[in-house]
Structures are given as C-alpha cells and as structure tokens.
Amino acid sequence: MSETQLHALNTANLTFPYTPVVGLDTGSFTCSIPVYLIDHPEGTVLVDTGLNHELVEDPETYGASHLEGMVAGTDIKNTQPPTAQFADLGYEPSEIDYVILTHLHFDHTGYIDAFPEAEFVVQRDELQYAWWPEKEQHPFYLVDDFAPLREYDVSAISGEYDLFGDGSVRCVPTPGHTPGHQSVAVTLGPNETVILAADVAYCREAYEQELWMTFDWSVEKTLESIRSVRHMAATEGATVSILHDPADLERLTEH
After folding, report:
1. The domain spanning residue 45 has which CATH number?
2. Looking at residues 123-142, what average pLDDT do you find?
3. For 149-197, how does the pLDDT look when each residue is reduced to its tens digit (9 = 90+)?
4. Do residues 168 and 40 make contact, with C-beta atoms less than 8 angstroms apart?
5. In the beta sheet, which residues pair with residue 171?
6. For residue 54, what are the contacts with CB-CB under 8 A and spacing of at least 6?
7. Which SMART domains does UniProt cross-reference here (predicted)?
8. Which of 19, 23, 48 is nearest to 31 (CA)?
9. DSSP assignment of the chain
C-alpha cells in the first residue's frame, strides 16, 4: 500500500461554561474543533470543514442567533479557518478531491462552500435527517451551511464505504450522536491505523466511561457505537482519536 499522510488542523477552541453536555460534574470543558487532511496517492481528502469564524464573531448576522450563548466561549484568536491553514502544508482548497462529513452539525459544516469542486461523502441517513431534525437536535443544524450540497457532487452512502478501494480510508457508520454519524478509519502504514471517531463521544473520558451527550439522537445507538469503535480498535490495533478532545488532537498533531 502506498504511503498515506494525515494532518490534523484545529479551527477553534470552545469552552463550555457547563458540563451537562457530557454528563460530567467537573466544571468547564475546553474542546478543540479540528478538521483532518488526508493525503492519499489517489486523492486529497478533507474530513469535516470546521466551525465558521463568522458564526463566532457575529451569530445574528450569520443567521444563528440561537447559538450566541453556545459559541460565546469560543476562542478563534490563535486559530484559522482550514483554507487558511492549507498553505502551510502546500495545498490549495481547489486541490481537495473529497470531503467526508462525519455529520452535519454546525461545527463540522462551517466551510462546506469553500470546496465546490470536491466530491462530498456523507451517510444518506444524515442527509435526510438534517433537513427535519427532532427538537433536541434542531439547533445544531444550520441549513445555510449544508444547503450547497444540493448543488455539489455528493455521494450519499449507506453503511461502510472504502473511498479508494484499498482499505486506506474507510467510512464506518457510528450512529447515536446523530442518525447518520460516521467515523473514518485511516491506514497510514502496515501497522498503523487511526480511527477518527468524530463525535462518537465528546471527550476521551466520555469515550472510556461510555458517557453520552445529553442531546444525542439515541443513547442506545451511542453506546453501541462507542463499543463498536473500541472493538474495531482492539481488532485492528488502531489508535482512536476523539475529535473534540484537545489531548487527542495534540497527539495527532505530533504524529
């Protein structure tokens, strides 16, 4: 298998003034909001598109005034949008061939419109649910963020999906946080696989203790997915990276 490279790029840091979101009574929690750039011999892949800085700076103008309180604790001073970070790695946004969306919450879809030439890969269940989410999930879906998918090249997949057909970049359904949530398994070498578990859990502690988020679509499915990722990691000898956990991001950055 040819060499595949993985780069983790943080788009923002969000500090929650409360912890019920992860069911932990331990004060505030600061999370990272990264995207992942995968350089494969047959194409360049972006996993998620991050949190749009314009939303943080002016939620009302962005069309998401209901999120003002949630993003009030977001630090974007020392971060940049993914497109601005590509240059340091030698890429242009137009060179992104595929964008895999783990799900369609606002902190993962902020820059979809920056990649009009890419092929987007998203679970069909997620595409369908995003337009008509239930009450608890509704605030997290910003239609204006993902509406461009109506015009873009979209592969609406169902179940597991091997992007290049060589096992190096695999989409793995992990529903629970949302109906169409998916993780991405990236094989970097003969004995090195990283599972980008996205929001299967909100932080490392939640993943290890099987703690769900208070607004998860399905607690039952969340627990099944956490255990599924854990089984997959043990079976394949893979490393699991939880998207919003700063320590997990740091480990990938140092990779």
Report:
1. 3.60.15.10
2. 96
3. 999 999 999 999 999 999 999 999 999 999 999 999 999 988 899 999 9
4. yes
5. 161, 184
6. 61, 62
7. Lactamase_B
8. 19
9. ----EEEEEEEEEEEES--GGGT--SS-EEEEEEEEEEEETTEEEEE-----HHHHH-HHHHT-GGGHHHHTTEE-TT---HHHHHHHHT--GGG--EEE-S---TTTSTTGGG-TTSEEEEEHHHHHHHHS--TTTGGG--HHHHGGGGTSEEEEE-S-EESSSSSSEEEEE-TTSSTT-EEEEEEEETTEEEEE-TTSSSSHHHHHHT---TT-S-HHHHHHHHHHHHHHHHHHTPEEE-TT-HHHHHHHHT-
Q: Looking only at Cα atoms, what is the longest distance across the chain? A: 48
Whole-structure pTM over 0.85, yes or no? yes
Q: How many CB atoms lie within 10 A of CB 69?
A: 10
Identify which of 249, 255, 252, 253 has the alpha carbon closest to the alpha carbon of residue 14. 249
What count of Cα atoms within 13 Å lies in the side-chain half-sphere of residue 109? 22
Structure tokens at 173: 């359904």
Residue 181 contacts residue 163 (beta carbons within 8 Å): no
Q: Into how many domains does the chain fold?
A: 1
| 210-128-245-33 Cα dihedral, nearest 10 degrees | -170
Residue 120 lies in domain: 5-253
The model's pLDDT over 43-85, given as tens digits with 9 standing for 90+, comes to 999 999 999 999 999 999 999 999 998 888 898 988 999 999 9
